[in-house]
Amino acid sequence: MGLRITQFTMLAAATASDGGASLSDVADLLGMDRTTLSRNLKPLERDGLIVFCDDEMRGRSRAIRITKKGETLFGKAEPIWRRVQSNLKSDLGPTEWKQFHTAITTASKSISS
Fold it and tell me: Is the full-model pTM beyond 0.70?
């Protein structure tokens, strides 16, 4: 499929935006700055999975929108991601899954601070 987990996450954010998400909102959601997000989105734009557009709701703000090609790829990748998550959760068990999830959440918050 050729999609990295970071790219999958950015496609998920674009998919959830229902028509367009500002770069600032997506950066906040993913815990990264706008410059890093823009740089990481370039391969997705190059591959025709997202497009940059003006955010009509916010004037001059840039936004991203997922393309049909991006929706198709995301649609193929999402069930795989869900299966991997389910397998990991099952393998770890409820207690270790909760500890793992807490550790990941804590780590991501400290990185974005």
Answer: yes
